[in-house]
Amino acid sequence: MILPILSFGHYGLREETREVEKDYPQLKEMISNMFETMYHANGVGLAAPQVNIPLRIFVVDGSPLDPIEDENMEGFKKVFINPTKLNETGEEWPYEEGCLSIPDIREDVWRPANIRLRYFDQDFNEHVEVFKGMQARVIQHEYDHLEGVLFTDYLSGLRKKMVKSRLNKISKGQINAEYPMRFPKK
Ligand code: NI
């Protein structure tokens, strides 16, 4: 089932998230809905708060990205449950990020090159793993959603000013997204 994606300005994107319980009854269904919603919107990552579920889970699939440009993204399809960021290392590098909750806005964000993460997969097996490059980038962006953080929060004062009116429009629903969205209630 395709779920509506919360837009910038919706409270659900800033809400505190809870851990997913091991016996969470609709876990498989939730994961499959999240993948379906992400693919339909042509995203490479989707976090539960974006579909108004305040739980610590996100899904990624990097295969839609150009395999020549992003070699390590091919077959990078994963579910991250209750992830904990252990550390981030390496030099910060800029990448023009976008977000399904913030259509049509892309801005450079600087993040460390590597992230070490503890997480559970969809069978609740625990993993501790280091991710690099674009894999790290996607994880850092989605992890932020679990903390109520959006990529636009990182923009400099000047860049923020420049996108402010477009963000306001998005939060008022004045946008033609190619997928179902839910906007803040007036
Ligand atoms: Ni996002």
- Structural class by sheet pairing and helices: alpha+beta
Overall geometry comes to globular
The percentage helix is: 10-25%
Order of helices and strands: EHEEEEEHHE
List the ions, cofactors and other small molecules found in this model: nickel (II) ion
Overall pLDDT: 95
Report what the structure shows.
- 23% of the residues lie in helices and 33% in strands.
- It contains 3 helices and 7 strands.
- The chain has helices at 27-40, 133-146, 157-171, and strands at 5-6, 45-47, 57-61, 77-99, 102-120, 126-132, 181-182.
- The strands form 2 sheets. Strands 2-3-4-5-6 form a 5-stranded antiparallel beta sheet, sandwiched between helices. A two-stranded parallel sheet has the order 1-7.
- With 186 residues, it is α+β, with helices and mostly antiparallel strands.
- Bound molecules: nickel (II) ion (NI).
Please sum up the structure shown.
This protein is an alpha+beta fold. It has three helices and seven strands; from the N terminus they run E-H-E-E-E-E-E-H-H-E. A five-stranded antiparallel beta sheet has the order 2-3-4-5-6, with helices on both faces. Strands 1-7 form a two-stranded parallel ribbon.
